[in-house]
Amino acid sequence: MDTELREQVKRLTDRAEIYDCMQRYARGIDRQDRALLRSAYHDGAVDDHVGFVGVVDDFIDWALAYHGTQTRYQHFLLNHTADIDGDVAHAETYYLFIGTDREPANHMTLSGGRYVDRLERRDGRWAIADRVCVVEFTSESESQMTDEVLALMVGIRAARHDSTDPSYQRPLTAARST
Asked: DSSP letters along 26-56, please?
């Protein structure tokens, strides 16, 4: 393989691994999977996140406790860029967050912004070293997806915020009608 092609493969691999790190963050927090969420960060990482500023393990405790007050929530990752310089990268990932609180019942928050990250490759693994969460907008309303509405939707698979969620099932098998 020539040098130029080798460098291109390395750049593409680095970008893919950095984006995978962002995906581990979103899936880890939405499934309340502490180990997966933690894998998106290096030891000693600091997160400046919507009123919380602190080290990663304290952030995870704070974030999981916050989402524990909600019935439903999802983090969507959108536009993503990564400037890579050796073993350091600066990334910007747009996010959209939707969450429905338990109290007051069906209070829904829609928020959008950007995760601005400095990542490092340590021992061959890309992870966040510093994060600043920049909020671009937030909106609050009442969710129409109440528990009563969900109860009327026969056969619906509700999301689970733990390892009983269908996304953990290996091999995945959908219910088959007979």
From this structure: HHHHHTT-HHHHHTTEEEEEEEEETTEEEEH
Phi and psi at residue 162, to the nearest 5°:
-165, -170
- Cβ neighbors of 162 (< 8 A, separation 6 or more) are 31, 32, 33
Paired tokens of 53 = 């500023």
pLDDT, tens digit, 9 for 90 and up, residues 7-35: 999 999 999 999 999 999 999 999 999 99
Distance CA 73, CA 53 (A): 22
Instruction: Provide the terminal-to-terminal Cα distance of the chain, rounded to the nearest Å.
Output: 53
- 95, containing H or E segment: strand 88-101
pLDDT tens, position by position, 116-126? 999 999 999 99
Question: How confident is the model over 75-93, as pLDDT tens digits?
Answer: 999 999 999 999 999 999 9
Residue 107 in contact with residue 142, Cβ under 8 Å? yes
If DSSP codes are grouped into helix, strand and coil, which group holds residue 80?
strand
Q: Identify residue 51 by its one-letter amino acid code.
A: G
Largest pairwise CA distance in the chain: 62
